[in-house]
Design a protein that fits this description.
- The chain starts with 7 loop residues before the first helix and ends with a helix.
- It has 15 helices and two strands.
- It is an all-alpha fold.
- The protein is elongated.
């Protein structure tokens, strides 16, 4: 029956049902973010209840319960913000779907935190505050709670603004602010703070330059040769071996540093051995995969896709092993201070504390991670598997070079800096090619320099937002932490 032949009441009913469907759809769209908030609140409450049951009736139980909630909140924010740096390039390059990236990252982050997260953590993050100046248990507990809450809130704000920031720097800022509020400016070890501030510049520059160098090598040795597939058969196994060796060294230095103590020399030997073995194994595998492929860039993207997925998984494992301390380090310090009645420079991490950090990072990734994964992977600059591979390899190589030189670096700044480096290199290279083509034309057919618009391949708005967030992270977290400490002192002192 056509609409025109329907009785008036039927047509009215159809319109009402359509309106109801649109209202229902709008309600679902609006309420979807609230589901993540609800699950997050449930996880925070569950972490606090678990702390209450495990600690039992002790004098400092309320402080531990509150700190467990803050630690769970911080872990959620680390998953929402920091993990995007590892998975964003692979998703942006279409080597992984969003669901696949989240699944792999959740598994690898949790495994890294629980297997290699370590048993001991520094109570005063990065040694930026003199422990003797906050030796009083009560003052120390307030300082750590303030630092943890301030760092979590700042990372949450940065995620909402769409800016990937260093969670390590957020915790450093929180400890700095609470330390200054508790013991004054003289309690801060300013040379250490200067080294951390230097990493704001060192990390992204090193990551960007190394990523650009790798991309330049791929372009001139594989992409811009006449027989791309033949060149790929030679150089892709070499790059896979380099990646395997770099990540083996990276995992030994960073991912497993709290389980087994291995120096730089031994780590490099292990990386060299792993890289050589993987190179030899990759030669026949790449030859089989390249057989029958067309001499096109699309074929090259296929060859780089699987190594990119593996590198993203390894980065997530190492990240879980290292950055879980940002969530549970202050919490472990509070638990120790309340149970032992004393402040210690190094404390052991209870298993239940580590579990909160590990699962909090995974929940945060699943619930809120896609926003920044999309930003890092596709909204800063366009990535394909080869460019994304350069970003992943740069992250590992930069950490190794920085460790060898004794330079402080941030894994977040390295990864995002590498994305920027790839994008700006593409801009420079595109301009160079346009200039070469223009110069090859007769003078009468050349466009004037002023009329040639430079092609922008990096979104400037995201670049400025991210740089501003990096610069503000430590001061913002410090200010919030200092205010929280003063508020706690006034309420509980």
């Amino acid at each position: 029956m056509s609409d025109t032949s329907k009785p008036d009441q039927w047509r009215t009913l159809d319109k009402d049902l359509n309106r109801l469907s649109r209202v229902e759809y709008a309600t679902m769209h609006v309420s979807r973010p609230l589901v993540g908030v609800g699950v997050s609140l449930a996880f925070i409450l569950l972490a606090a209840l678990a702390a209450m049951v495990i600690i039992g009736q002790t004098p400092g139980m309320l402080f531990v319960v509150a700190a467990a909630g803050f630690g769970a909140y911080m872990a959620l924010n680390i998953g929402a913000n920091d993990v995007a740096n590892n998975m964003g390039p692979a998703v942006g390059a279409n080597a992984l779907s969003m669901a696949g990236a989240i699944a792999i990252a959740a598994i690898c982050e949790t495994a890294g935190a629980l297997i290699a997260g370590g048993d001991v953590v520094s109570t005063i993050s990065k040694g930026i505050v003199d422990p003797e100046r906050v030796a009083d248990t009560q003052v120390f507990t307030w300082a750590m709670m303030s630092a943890l809450l301030a760092a979590a809130i700042w990372v949450n704000i940065a995620t909402w603004l769409g800016a990937p920031v260093s969670t390590t720097h957020s915790v450093v800022g929180g400890v700095l602010g609470a330390g200054v509020a508790a013991a004054g400016l003289t309690a801060v070890k300013w040379p250490m703070m200067g080294a951390i501030a230097a990493s704001w510049v060192i990390s992204p520059l090193m990551g960007g330059v190394i990523a650009a160098m790798i991309l330049a090598f791929i372009k001139w040795r594989i992409i811009y040769v006449e027989d791309k597939i033949a060149a790929a058969r030679v150089w892709v196994p070499v790059l896979i071996g380099l990646m395997a060796g770099a990540f083996a060294t990276y995992l030994v230095l960073k991912g497993l540093s709290r389980v087994v103590s291995i120096g730089m020399g031994h780590a490099l030997v292990i990386g060299l051995a792993v890289g050589l073995v993987c190179h030899l194994l990759a030669i026949p595998a790449i030859r089989r995969q390249a057989r029958g492929m067309e001499n096109r860039n699309k074929s090259l993207k296929t060859l780089f896709a699987f190594p990119l997925v593996v590198s993203a998984a390894l980065l997530s494992f190492a990240h879980g092993a290292n950055d879980v301390a940002n969530a549970v380090g202050p919490l472990a310090a509070i638990v120790h201070a309340q149970q032992e009645g004393a402040v210690s420079g190094q404390v052991s991490i209870p298993v239940w504390v580590m579990v909160i950090g590990a699962f909090g990072i995974s929940f945060g990734l699943v619930l809120f991670g896609p926003k920044l994964i999309r930003l890092v992977g596709s909204q800063i600059t366009k990535l394909n598997p080869m460019r994304a591979y350069c970003v992943a390899l740069s992250a590992a190589v930069t950490v190794i070079v920085a460790s060898w030189l004794g330079l402080p670096v941030s894994s977040t700044h390295i990864a995002v800096g590498a994305v920027f480096g790839v994008g700006f290199f593409r801009e420079w290279h595109a301009e160079r090619r346009v200039r070469a083509i223009t110069q090859a034309r007769p003078p009468a057919k050349r466009l004037p320099e002023a009329e040639r618009r430079r092609r922008k391949l990096v979104r400037r708005s995201h670049f400025m937002t991210v740089v501003a967030a990096w610069v503000v992270t430590v001061p913002a977290a410090a200010l919030l932490s200092g205010l929280f400490f003063l508020a706690l002192s006034a309420l509980l002192g």
